[in-house]
Amino acid sequence: MTRWRGERVIGGDPWIHALVDNWYPGDEFVVDDLSLHYYEMKYETAARLKPTHIVELGVRAGYSAFAFLSAVPEAYYLGIDNGMCDAEQGDQYIAHAHKILKRFAHVSFLAHDIQKLERFAMTPWSWETTMAHVDADHSFEGCFHDLKLCSVAKWILVDDYGVGKDIREACDEVLTQNPSWTAEFVHDGLRGSLLITTQ
Predict the structure, then answer these.
(1) C-alpha to C-alpha distance for 199 and 183, rounded to whole angstroms
(2) Among residues 65, 47, 55, 48, which one has the least CA distance to residue 127?
(3) Domain ranges in the chain?
(4) Quick check: 74 pLDDT over 50?
(5) Dist. CA 120–CA 98, nearest whole Å
(6) What is the radius of gyration, based on Cα positions, of the chain?
(7) If we measure between CA atoms, which residue out of 74, 81, 82 comes closest to residue 105?
(8) 109, 78 in Cβ contact below 8 A?
(9) Can you tell me the distance from the alpha carbon of 183 to that of 147, in angstroms, rounded to the nearest whole number?
(10) Cα-flanking dihedrals φ and ψ of residue 77, to 5°?
(11) CB–CB of 51/131 below 8 Å?
(12) Contact 127, 92 (CB under 8 A)
């Protein structure tokens, strides 16, 4: 595992060095062993699944997207975020995400209230090889909506599953309603994610 010591990373692949170099200045989510391992697991998940398309609900500063696209740099990425985090905290996270993801070839963003989306309207889009990353509304209703919205994707990676009661309940409900889907817990050392396979 990559180790953080003071102001530099020791070990790890070049992409994790680049992520640290592109950390949002003054971010309250600090660089440490736990946060780096958290993003390493994002990278490893994308490297294992090899999605050709990635849709992310909740972009924030773009760290997860950076990890995913470092693993599959030719993947098409769409990040959807309503900018609420920026508005509430007076920060420029979304602008930062735009900046750090410019190095990848197929990146686009949609500024939209995810809860008002009823379906995705991207064409052409290979849903059978798409990974969705759900990390937006953490309420039961919000997460359940996002899971239903992402049900067209082959894989749904649900962030904060290990620490969010409402998120776990939303996942349990959607899995109950779709008994053919499978799920596995992803130990990321921080919040825990659930990887759902729909197809």
Answers:
(1) 11
(2) 55
(3) 33-197
(4) yes
(5) 21
(6) 16
(7) 74
(8) yes
(9) 13
(10) -125, 135
(11) yes
(12) no
Query: What DSSP character marks residue 23?
Result: P
CATH 2.60.120.10 fits 33-197, yes or no: no
Q: Using one digit for the tens of pLDDT, what is the confidence trace for 108-162?
A: 999 999 999 999 988 778 999 999 999 999 999 999 999 999 999 999 999 999 9
Check: CB of residue 178 under 8 Å from CB of residue 151: yes
SS (H, E, C) 56-118: EECCCCCHHHHHHHHHCCCCEEEEEECCHHHHHHCCCHHHHHHHHCCCCCCEEEEECCHHHCC
Q: Amino acid identity of 143?
A: C
C-alpha to C-alpha distance for 34 and 12, rounded to whole angstroms: 14
Determine which helix (DSSP H) or strand (DSSP E) holds 190, and give its type and residue range: none
Residue 86 identity: D
Specify the residue for token string 């209230």: 113
Question: Cα dihedral angle (133, 137, 142, 147), rounded to 10 degrees?
Answer: 0
29-40 average pLDDT score? 92
